[in-house]
Design brief:
single chain, mainly beta, Jelly Rolls, 1 helix
Length: 182
């Protein structure tokens, strides 16, 4: 009887370790809107696949919009809207951090809730744009022309490059050119 009991305890412990290894992330997003042809990249074994509204978006996922297509991702109180022919690669979606790369296209960001320790950064080939508070922002990345632009409609942000950091106040835009990565 004692060996049987120990075997049951060992199996339950092993099963709980397996379940803990597959814990869902603390923070995830979802595809809230899709118009036209929108694709997601979630599994390297599958590659790009058609996206559907409410598909979960987590770290290391990507979203692509074809010509005449649009998509909106929501992560808590943050909306990320992709215009046509845009690709957003989400490196990290954590409890207080979003780190993404706009490989190409246009991204409109609306931050409704921002805590003091939150970190929201959108990278392009030319710069890293750090969004520093609640507001509305637009980021454009054009790899063919070799430029990126940040426009701050409401809120405040900064641009970081190899040359340093520049504040971008409300109502201003900043453009950076170059082919190197920051």
């Amino acid at each position: 009887m004692g060996i049987f009991f120990k075997l049951i305890i060992a199996l339950l412990t092993f099963a709980s370790l397996g379940a803990a290894a597959q814990e869902p992330p603390g923070r995830a997003g979802r595809l809230a809107f899709a118009e036209g042809s929108v694709s997601v990249y979630m599994d390297p074994d599958i590659g790009w696949e058609p996206a559907y509204v409410n598909v979960p978006i987590t770290s290391e996922n990507s979203v692509w919009t074809d010509r005449d297509s649009r998509a909106e991702l929501r992560v808590s109180g943050i909306s990320l809207r992709l215009d046509e022919t845009s690709q957003l690669d989400l490196s990290e979606i954590l409890d207080n951090r979003i780190d993404a790369t706009l490989a190409r296209g246009a991204l409109n960001v609306r931050i409704r809730h921002f805590q003091r320790n939150d970190s929201i950064a959108i990278n392009t080939r030319q710069a890293r744009f750090v969004l520093l508070g609640e507001g509305r922002y637009r980021i454009d990345s054009d790899p063919e022309r070799g430029d990126s632009r940040l426009t701050v409609f409401e809120g405040r942000a900064s641009m970081e490059t190899r040359s340093g950091r520049v504040s971008v106040p409300r109502g201003q835009s900043i453009v950076v050119w170059g082919n190197g990565s920051c």
